[in-house]
Amino acid sequence: MSTDMDTRLRQYAQRWREGQSESPAVPEFAAARDAAPRRARRARRTTVVAMAASIASVGLIAASTLVLDRGEHGGAPLGSSASARPRVDNARVPWNRPPLRPYPVAVPAAPTVAAPAGLRHCANADLRIESTNTTAPAGAEGWLETDFVLRSVATSPCSVPNGFLNVELVSADGSPLPQDAIPVGGAVFPSALLVRPAQIVLGTAQWAVYEGRAPRPARLVINPDGGAGHPSDGLSVSVAAVAIPAHPRNPSNVGPWRATSYGTVDRVADPGTTASLTASVAAPATVAVGATLRYSVTLTNPTSTAVPLSPCPDFGQRLDVVPVKYATTVGSRGTLNCAQAPTTIGAGESVTFAYELDTTGEVDGPGALNWSLLDGSTAAVTARTDLTVTR
């Protein structure tokens, strides 16, 4: 290939990467990924737009998805509520070099169970908070994330939105904080997820408050039914002890910006299953082509029900660089090192597994490490982190 053609291809790749910043839904508003933490665990791609007080009653619009995982950035816990469950590192499991099979393909997510048409929405009284965890993810520029687990205490099925969920910051006197930005996007299918009695709902709230422009929040109120939040609601989380960054990044070019909060539902799962776990990846920022990438994955059980690691599940690991000159992926599939791990991951506990990935055949460039805990041929839990492959 001529030097000129090589240069042109690299320029094309650079333009492609730059083009990944989504166009704002409204020209004068900035994109959401410039405002809120970039999450890998579910990949819901959103855009945050400014909202005038005159349209404060406008509801959230469901967004299209891209897959993101809780705790992907490994932010330190910032506060807890009475319902918050401490996370315990109770084991570190070494890499056991299991028999590996080539697996350089994307793992499909576990199928979602759509709510039947006409099924009632879950009321706040149908759900209770199982656990919460608030962190400041790396690179979030002052935005906070509160992961939450809700358990159905209803006696009949109900539904929750598949995507955006109404959450609200409330001050100590019970007044709601301003909602100066809301996420918007395209529709998702299914639009609502089925929640059976005793099932759990895993989700995340993203929020930020600009110091001096809005009161300090005392609680974060989660409203599955879309109603107005009040501190007396059963689905409220104390954020009084959370260290709130003073000057978070403005989600739009309309000001003065004061505060915002919004939530997303990740998935609905049965307690005691691998799908009720969360995962986070800790990996170096760079790896050289051909070197062994050594990293770790922490599985956490944020519920009150222990999760057995029997039968021992498989995992998938994949390193993607897309594109440099062409899309390239290296990956493998193997079985979790259950022989050296606890037989169960107890309520509120975590287990960290060491991993290795041979990068032979990869090319240099910005990439992403994707890890999945498999349930047959689908991913029950996924995690992702960005890294750069060097020569």
Give a brief description.
This protein has 391 residues and is mainly beta. The protein has one helix at residues 3-18, and strands at residues 41-44, 47-50, 65-68, 77-79, 88-93, 101-102, 127-135, 144-152, 158-161, 164-171, 181-184, 192-195, 200-209, 217-223, 236-238, 259-269, 278-282, 286-288, 292-300, 307-308, 314-321, 328-335, 344-345, 349-358, 365-375, 378-390. Strands 4-7-8-13-16-10-14-15 form an 8-stranded antiparallel beta sheet, with no helix packed on it. Strands 6-22-21-25-26-18 form a 6-stranded mixed beta sheet, with no helix packed on it. Strands 5-24-19-17 form a 4-stranded mixed beta sheet, with no helix packed on it.
Based on the model shown, name its key terms:
globular, six-stranded mixed β-sheet, mainly beta, 391 residues, 42% strand, eight-stranded antiparallel β-sheet
How far is it from the N-terminal to the C-terminal residue, by CA? Answer: 19 Å
Structural class: mainly beta
Look at the structure and give the mean pLDDT: 78
Q: Figure out the total of helices.
A: 1
Q: How big is the Rg?
A: 21 Å
* Helix content class: under 10%
